[in-house]
Amino acid sequence: MNIGSVRGMKDILPPESGKWAALESAYLAYAARFGYREIRTPILEKTELFARAVGETTDIVEKEMYTFTDRSGESLTMRPEGTAPVVRALLANRKTFDEFPARLCYSGPMFRHERPQKGRLRQFHQMGAELFGTDSPYADAEIVALLHGFLREVGLSGVSLEINSLGDPACRPLYQRELSGFLASREDRLCDDCRRRRLQNPLRVLDCKSEGCVQATVDAPPVLSTLCDACKDHFGTVEAALRALGIPFSRNPRMVRGLDYYRRTTFEFVIPGMGAQNTVAAGGRYDGLAEMVGGKERVPAIGFAIGVERLLMLMEESGEPGAAADVFLVTSGKRFLDEAFRWKMGLIEKGVRADMDYEGRSVKAQFRRADRSGAGVVVVFGDAEDSRGAVVLRDMASGKQEEIPRDEAFLRLATIRKEE
């Protein structure tokens, strides 16, 4: 039996798992500043949810979903994206959300049977946020500001914000007719899927990554030219709010996003120069989605999703968040193991990430391990220091060390995390 993982799915092992845990924790903490609370939805949902919400003409529904019939004969799908399940949960538990707006955030695995590539897997992970109950353009600005601030918080540089408006049911049909007529004149240059989509949902053609379709639609009419007055005003207020917040952006008239439920504001944070896979995070407004999945009331909403694998790949942090030690305890002989172990447990109880070597290796080998651990401070227990009731503290960054009484040393180390 081949015990390797399924193609397109991977194990997340230490120390990489520490980076994942730290990133997810940082995201939930940052979202909480804006008032977002965590929601966790099942991995399995009824297939109908995604057929209605995502759109039957999208690649996700047509080609990529992991769908099966269970023993009761019901068609189930492993969630390919996070928004539709959150909307379903909101509607199913409506009494829990007695007052709008409701702010929810999430993180977890998604599944799509697509070609595995760098930064994209068949089991992949997303972090997201959804703001329900208001169609105010300031809600759009808030959700973009949350995402912009978080990407900056984790040290991601070189990211550009692109925005667009897709209109609403009042003005989008006009654009669809105009775009469909344009595509008819280029039909011989479109892929087979896009020839069919031209009649069913022409906006999907603008989202196609096929080089032939990209070139055939390079001069397609912009959706912004057909917006109704209400949508123009909404988009103008979003842009003004972003300028007031000092968040730079550019318009991208080709941005339609990959899912059918979007309307009005859409946005992406991209890394220029990375080609077709340059999107770090994206989202938009989906005011009609609640009704699309069977809800009895209109629930305006806007949200985003971040690809965790892509974000971790791009982050410039050189350390190992959550895996690195603050303090490493080095013993010059096995007789110091008991005391060092008590220090380690005591420091951990104080919230300090402490580590040590249990095997009694040489001091030189322990220092090598301390260096690999990323510890900022090393404590050395040795005979010379023990005779004076002291230990040696070494600052690993500067190489400076000092001899300090044991009680004083422990108290100083116990405050390391607070000082950070």
List keywords for this structure.
420 residues; alpha+beta; Rossmann fold; 2 domains
How would you describe this protein?
This protein is an alpha+beta fold. The chain contains 17 helices and 16 strands. The protein has helices at 16-33, 47-53, 59-64, 83-92, 137-153, 172-184, 192-200, 203-206, 211-216, 229-244, 289-292, 308-314, 337-349, 363-373, 383-387, 406-413, 416-419; strands at 37-38, 44-46, 66-69, 75-78, 102-111, 123-132, 160-165, 250-251, 263-270, 279-285, 301-307, 327-331, 354-356, 377-381, 390-395, 401-405. The strands form three sheets. It has an eight-stranded mixed sheet with strand order 1-5-6-11-10-9-7-8. Strands 13-12-14-15-16 form a five-stranded mixed sheet, with helices on both faces. Strand 3 and strand 4 (75-78) form a beta hairpin. Helix 5 packs parallel to helix 10 (229-244). Mean pLDDT is 83; it is low at 317-323.
Sequence-ordered SSE layout with sheet pairings:
Elements: H1 16-33, E1 37-38, E2 44-46, H2 47-53, H3 59-64, E3 66-69, E4 75-78, H4 83-92, E5 102-111, E6 123-132, H5 137-153, E7 160-165, H6 172-184, H7 192-200, H8 203-206, H9 211-216, H10 229-244, E8 250-251, E9 263-270, E10 279-285, H11 289-292, E11 301-307, H12 308-314, E12 327-331, H13 337-349, E13 354-356, H14 363-373, E14 377-381, H15 383-387, E15 390-395, E16 401-405, H16 406-413, H17 416-419
Parallel strand pairs: 1-5, 7-8, 12-13, 12-14
Antiparallel strand pairs: 2-4, 3-4, 5-6, 6-11, 7-9, 9-10, 10-11, 14-15, 15-16
